[in-house]
């Protein structure tokens, strides 16, 4: 159990550091700094999780990616750049801890934790 928790904190530290998937320009960094995402509601969740988000003008594409603790992608949900809320179906996910990341224009912005419990 200690190893799993240590791995989890390592993954959170790496994902939360804002690593870039592609090189970014100063203009893109300004847009990225304005991106916001709420904590999921409810959390822990069982069937679905609702996220509120804000994407500034100039963002071309955005998505939420949910990964398990080993880093395997479980769910990818494209976001409407003109929207502000999305409901993700997580009914097929097993009970456990997941990391969700909002990616904007192929750059990871922030990662947070989602707990699935039934």
CATH class bucket:
Mainly Beta
Helix content: 10-25%
- Give the helix/strand class: alpha+beta
Radius of gyration: 14 Å
Task: Give the end-to-end Cα distance, rounded to a whole number of Å.
Answer: 21 Å
Spatial ordering of strands, largest sheet: 4-3-6-7
Unreliable segments of 5+ consecutive residues = 1-23
- The tally of beta strands, per DSSP, is 7
CATH architecture annotation name: Sandwich
CATH superfamily: Immunoglobulins
Mean pLDDT over the residues? 84
Question: Would you write up a description of this structure?
Answer:
- Helix content is 19%, strand content 39%.
- It has one domain (2-116): Immunoglobulins (Immunoglobulin-like, Sandwich), CATH 2.60.40.10.
- Mean pLDDT is 84; it is low at 1-23.
- The chain has a 4-stranded antiparallel β-sheet with strand order 4-3-6-7, with no helix packed on it. It has a 3-stranded antiparallel β-sheet with strand order 1-2-5, with no helix packed on it.
- By secondary structure, the protein is α+β, with helices and mostly antiparallel strands.
- It is built from 2 helices and 7 strands.
Concise synopsis of the structure shown:
With 118 residues, the protein is α+β, with helices and mostly antiparallel strands. The chain has helices at 2-15, 26-34; strands at 36-37, 48-54, 62-67, 73-79, 85-89, 96-104, 107-116. The chain is 19% helix and 39% strand.
